[in-house]
Amino acid sequence: MGRLSDPFSMRFVLPEHTELLVRHDLDKSLISMPDIAEDELDEFHYKIIDSIQYDYALEVDYFSPVKQGKGTVETVWGFVQKIEHSKKQIKLLNDEDYWWISLNRIVAIREKGSVKNFV
């Protein structure tokens, strides 16, 4: 029996179906914003100030909203170049890119490394 005589042997997936499947998988992987304790927030602020003062890099995990209050946790690293107090953001810079990260979306901060080797 050939492929043409057996309609179930071939699978046709329309682009719309593929898009729906991808979106469905993404929706299943989304999480709510993690709750951060007050003492953890204080530790984050200390590490940010310390990073500027002693010029070392940080690895920052932050919540990135995607859909209806749910999102993913992204990780970036870099040196804190600026603290924007009025907007409650930090500017993180490394040799590839920079990011403005809202302080209220930070989930975790770790010390990454030592002195800058770029301009």
Write a structural description.
The chain has 2 helices and 6 strands, in the order αβαβββββ. The mean pLDDT is 83. The protein is 27% helix and 39% strand. It has helices at residues 15-29, 38-54, and strands at 31-32, 57-67, 70-84, 89-93, 98-102, 106-113. It is α+β, with helices and mostly antiparallel strands. The protein has a domain at 34-113: SH3 type barrels. Strands 1, 2, 3, 4, 5 and 6 form a 6-stranded antiparallel beta sheet that branches.
Produce a short descriptive summary.
This protein has 119 residues and is an alpha+beta fold. It contains two helices and six strands. Strands 1, 2, 3, 4, 5 and 6 form a six-stranded antiparallel beta sheet that branches.
Mind describing the biggest β-sheet?
A: 6 strands, antiparallel
Number of strands: 6
**N- to C-terminal distance:** 68 Å
The CATH class of one domain, by name, is Mainly Beta
CATH topology of one domain: SH3 type barrels
- Poorly predicted regions: none
| Helical residues, percent | 25-40%
Which of globular, elongated, flat, extended, rod-shaped describes the shape? elongated
